[in-house]
Amino acid sequence: PITEHATPITNPENLIGKTVAEGRGFRSSELSEFIVPTVSQRTAEVIQRMTRMKLTISYPLKYGSRTIGAWMFHVKKPELSEEENRLMQLFSDQISIAIYNARLYSRVQDQVEELDAKTKDLGSLLTVTQQAIRSLEPNEVAQNIVNAVPEKLKHLEFVAGLIVDYDMKSSKVVPRTITRVPITEKALDIIGKPLNEFTQQLDLANPSTLIGRSIVTREIQMSDELEEFVSPYVPKRAARAAQKAMNVGAIISVPMVVRGEVVGAFVFFANRNPHTITDRERDLMMAFANNMGLAIENARLYKIIEEKAEELEEKNEYLKRLDETKSNFLSITSHQLRTPISGIKGYLSMLAEGDFGKLETKQQEIVDMNLLNVERLVKLIDMFLNVSRIEAGRLNLEKAPTDMMAMIEDVVRTLGQEAERKGLTLSVEKPNRKLPNPVIDEEKMRQVVLNLVDNASKYTKEGGITIIPSATRKVFKIEVRDTGIGLDEADAQQLFGKFVRAGGGAKINANGSGLGLFIIKKIVEAHGGRVWVESDGVGRGSSFFVEIPLRAETAKAEETA
Predict the structure, then answer these.
(1) pTM for the model
(2) Same fold, 2-108 and 130-288
(3) Can you tell me the distance from the alpha carbon of 222 to that of 269, in angstroms, rounded to the nearest whole number?
(4) CA pseudo-torsion sign 148, 154, 157, 159
């Protein structure tokens, strides 16, 4: 055929080659100068004699400044006229345009066909992915994927798929699932064993199957013989019979890589020759395998999370029951202790007052010390009872307009002597205007202020405590500022939890219960307010803030908001 007569453009003796190389035309009375060495000299002479050619002319075919080829023609007269030369040049230009357009059209058509194929591939990949993520059960996801292969990849002549899992720790390869169609059912019947019995121990240095090799090398492996993928785990004779039953000519093993790790392989079965697999199809199979591997792995992780969540929920329920048991125990114990301790406190008070006769100095000291300890026990029991009421939802508030300034001054009088005994100052920074009276439960809010001042006193060695009341149009605010041990940010964030104490607090005062601030928080929140602490750091003092709405309606509105 003429298409097999290629001429190197670098051959200086061939005028067609020179026409293309130099971009200009040539003419000669010898045909051989144009076609030798593509054909022999003798053949060229015979052709010229038989056709009675007297002149051969070549013209370059150009598009713009680029030479895209050449053409030649033969005439039976020794020369062309000037008009004939102009006509042939014009004809050359038209041929150039026509050839260039034909090439361009061919390339566009090829690109359109390739784009159509890629669009179809991506559509198939998207559809299978959508089917895969409909379920969150790993085995169901895997089965949905392989079942979609013969339908969604039919245009590639793929008839079935097999998913194989790889366990990196044990180096075992375990078939998970295969497309459920008649040809695969027949093949499995021939093999005579279920898939999960064909576990392979992968030799990383020298894999015995192409499936193993694709996992180790992370490269696609393909063959026209099934036995190369399954033997020696499946006898060769059975493998050949199974392949014949499936009528497949190409088996392709593609590694599934998820987050940088090989998790298995996806094996495609196709009714075609493996040598016809294109680079585009290889890319599609790689993308398909990795996407499907990711879908299966995500489903597996979701199942683990779901199981852990159920386990955590069970443990949380158990902890709730333990917490309720503990709260009930505290409530019952506190109630049982309160009565006898109140009696003891009463008798000690009578002894201290001399109701049973005057005590000696040493006796008086012992009675006073025991009375102080009993009062501490009573406070602790009251604290436990308050916590029990709060957790049982029995924190009832009896609200009424309350003179907060009078309450604060009463707290200062109550705790002033104790502060003075410790060498501390306790004062109120009075506002320059009369503050409004909030609608609150006076007794419980008094307990809040008492506890805040008492807490500040416990953790302040020197300096003093200042109570700073203020108000805006909507809220009443109390700041209790001390010069004590201060807090770091971590302690400040958790300080209002139950049984929580600041890191350095236990070293200074080991008798605290860790419940006072918890109770304060619950009482303030029950009023629709908030409580928080600020500190510049350890050793730099602290400021505790309480903010409560001025009216009960405001509290309700803020709770709703």
Answers:
(1) 0.48
(2) yes
(3) 10
(4) positive
Q: Percentages helix, strand, coil for the chain, rounded to the nearest 5?
A: 55, 20, 30
Is 486 in a helix, a strand, or coil?
coil
In sequence order, what are the residues at sequence separation of 6 or more whose Cβ sits closer than 8 angstroms to the Cβ of residue 277?
222, 250, 252, 270
User: What's the rounded Cα separation, in Å, for the pair 399 and 455?
Assistant: 25
* Ramachandran quadrant class, 260 (left: phi over 0; alpha: psi -120 to 50; beta: rest): left
Q: Among 479, 407, 477, which residue's Cα sits nearest to residue 441?
A: 407
What is the C-alpha to C-alpha distance for residues 138 and 174, in angstroms, rounded to an integer? Answer: 15
Structure tokens at 364: 């008086």
pLDDT tens digit sequence for 199-226 = 888 888 888 899 999 999 999 999 999 9
Contact assessment for residue 530 and residue 542, using Cβ atoms and an 8 Å cutoff: no
The amino acid at 413: R
- For domain 2-108, is the CATH number 3.40.1030.10? no
CATH architecture, range 130-288: 2-Layer Sandwich (3.30)
Structural tokens at position 259: 């987050």
pLDDT by residue (tens digit) across 26-62? 989 998 888 888 888 899 899 889 988 899 998 888 8
For residue 355, pLDDT over 50 is answered with yes
Nearest CA to 291 among 174, 122, 119, 136?
A: 122
Region 281-308 average pLDDT? 85
Identify whether the C-beta of residue 70 lies closer than 8 Å to the C-beta of residue 16. yes
Which DSSP category does 131 fall into?
H
Strands 464-471 and 425-428: parallel
Among 558, 459, 559, which Cα is nearest to 517's? 459
Q: Which fold has domain 400-560?
A: Heat Shock Protein 90 (3.30.565)
* Omega within 30 of 0 (cis) for the link into 37: yes
Gyration radius of the chain's alpha carbons: 48
How many angstroms separate the CA atoms of 318 and 22, rounded? 92
Cα-based angle 512, 516, 520 (whole degrees, multiple of 5): 165
Which residue in the block uniquely carries the two structure tokens 């669009």? 119
